[in-house]
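TICKET: design request
STATUS: open
ATTACHED STRUCTURE:
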């Protein structure tokens, strides 16, 4: 029988490899345009914005909302970065787009939440808690059970785990669009994380979510024309479709007004702005095929 420590360590050893970085010793950093192009290419390759959107039934909507609520609470408790939570939901939605879970198996949905957050943490965090610490109230999953679900997720997603999140784009877009008055970063993070509650994150390109969240933090009353002018001010903006950005921006507006009633500037001390570093240019533990 494998102990919890040995089991978790062996799985991590098999799956988590040091990511290649865009900066190498004694070399100049990669040009920003090349870095962005790489991100855009990765967006496309992972199939964001499918032509036929997934429609969740009422049961899945409720189970998904519970999963997000737990993931956000666990993120705060463990001190994970915001993109770890978003990445876990990318895994979650991508898994459900390929596999179904029966409505009576609520424990399976909870186990999926745990496995997705654990895998995302192994991708993004320097220190990952033992699997025994990833627990949901009312459930007590042992380490081997979580590991089996992790492997099911990995196989379902074909071991393609290095997905792009909106946080990888924030620094560039903020620099380009907010030269005179930078927006409140905590508001941007809040909008991105809580937008996950209403959308299948695999159906919206991370770059679009990033731009829409920045614009939402800057101005809550942009017309389509005003939004288009803002987007067109960005270098290399050709990859962005205005209609997609406007649709996402309007969704964020409705969510904020209906659910959170947030003013344009709020204090959210539990959301860290360190998560916006962009992340493709830093060393992290990664899962690779």
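STATUS: resolved
RESOLUTION: sequence designed for all positions
ATTACHED SEQUENCE:
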């Amino acid at each position: 029988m494998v102990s919890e420590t040995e089991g978790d360590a062996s799985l991590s050893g098999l799956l988590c490899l040091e990511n290649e970085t865009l900066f190498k010793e004694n070399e100049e950093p990669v040009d920003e345009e090349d870095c962005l192009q790489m991100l855009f290419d990765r967006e496309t390759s992972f199939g964001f914005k499918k032509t036929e959107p997934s429609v969740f039934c009422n049961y899945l909507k409720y189970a998904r909302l519970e999963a997000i609520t737990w993931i956000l609470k666990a993120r705060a408790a463990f001190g994970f970065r915001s993109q770890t939570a978003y990445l876990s939901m990318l895994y979650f939605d991508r898994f459900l787009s390929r596999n179904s879970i029966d409505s009576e198996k609520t424990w399976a949905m909870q186990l999926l939440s745990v496995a997705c957050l654990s895998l995302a943490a192994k991708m993004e965090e320097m220190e990952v808690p033992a699997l025994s610490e990833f627990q949901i109230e009312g459930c007590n999953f042992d380490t081997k059970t979580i590991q089996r679900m992790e492997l099911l997720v990995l196989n379902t997603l074909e071991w393609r785990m290095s997905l792009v999140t909106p946080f990888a784009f924030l620094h560039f877009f903020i620099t380009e669009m907010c030269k005179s008055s930078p927006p409140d970063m905590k508001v941007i993070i809040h909008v991105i994380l809580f937008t996950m509650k209403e959308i299948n994150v695999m159906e919206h390109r991370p770059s679009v979510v990033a731009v829409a969240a920045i614009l939402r933090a800057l101005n809550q009353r942009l017309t389509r024309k005003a939004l288009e002018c803002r987007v067109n001010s960005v270098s290399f903006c050709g990859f962005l479709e205005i209609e997609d950005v406007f649709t996402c921006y309007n969704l964020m507006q409705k969510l904020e007004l209906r659910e959170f009633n947030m003013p344009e500037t709020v204090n959210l001390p539990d959301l860290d702005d360190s998560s916006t570093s962009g992340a493709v240019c830093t060393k992290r533990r990664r899962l690779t095929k």
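CLOSING REMARK: The two ends are 27 Å apart (CA to CA). The chain has two domains: 11-24+53-162+283-287, 166-276.
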